[in-house]
Amino acid sequence: MPARPSKPVSPAPASAKRAGADTPAKAATRTKPKAGGAAAIPAAPRRRAVAPRTTGGGADTAPKRTAGARATLTLSSKNYGSWSMRGWLLCRMAGLAFDERVLGTDDASTRAELLLLSPSFLVPSLEHEGVKVWDTLAIAEYLDERFPEAGLLPTDIATRAHVRAVSGEMHQGFANLRSALPFHVKARYPGFKVFAGALADIARVCTIWRDCIAQYGGPWLFGPAPTLADAMYAPVVLRFHTYDVALDTVCARYADTVRAWPLVREYVAAAQREPDDMEELDAEF
């Protein structure tokens, strides 16, 4: 769209400035070129007002979006799939109405996620209004662009960058933690002896939690409402619970907040109902 000139080319006389729409004759007169001069440039249409973004997603459930066809979220296992949990939480935080498609454990992508502990395969995968997107961070960015009012990413640019940084660290790092403490919602291992190689990863996770809560005031990592970062670290909270990882006061309070989150409670309840069919994971202990 061409930029609006700083001064009107053909200002209308004061007597012509009246409320109401122009008649066709007025419109024709307004755009008709003057003798020996340029045509008047019509005023640019006014931009539609956009509601401001919120600073964080709802701690419970966002309003369901019913317009258009329902989305489909492809998952692996709720009991064993930490990346599936992240994708599921993000879709619920965005208020997206979706159907779940759960792949069998004989599917190559599912087994790659569950046994190789990699985020780089095709689950979770979201199909929505003709768009297919996989990889948890890509799903998060897509949902934030489509539903910015959900607050998956905060409005402040510096805070958004911080959310992306700690979420990216979770997405790409902590390999020792993943291998030493496999995701297993149903299991409990009181007094579990954590492999020494994973202790540095656990310490780094706790440092991230403490720093974020100190900077933004809690109870969530970036303030009063959950964001992408909380969805990324929620499976770690469940891992720490499964393997009885000792936490300091600040981290234990944050872990309690995540475990009490209605979305997490709903996910855990569904995982508890899932049949056990991945004996290979139990064989690691």
Report on this model:
With 285 residues, the chain is α+β, with helices and mostly antiparallel strands. 44% of the residues lie in helices and 6% in strands. The protein is built from eleven helices and four strands, in the order H-E-H-E-H-E-E-H-H-H-H-H-H-H-H. A four-stranded mixed β-sheet has the order 2-1-3-4, covered by helices on one side. The longest helix is centred in the last third of the chain and has 21 residues. The N and C termini lie far apart (64 Å). The N terminus and C terminus are likely disordered.
Backbone shape: globular
Number of contiguous helices: 11
Mean pLDDT: 78
Strand order of the largest sheet: 2-1-3-4
- Provide the succession of SSEs: HEHEHEEHHHHHHHH
Cα gyration radius (Å): 26 Å
User: N-to-C terminal Cα separation, in Å?
Assistant: 64 Å
- Strand proportion, as a percent range, falls in 5-15%
Percent of residues in helices comes to: 40-55%
Offer a few descriptive terms:
6% strand, disordered N terminus, alpha+beta, 285 residues, 11 helices
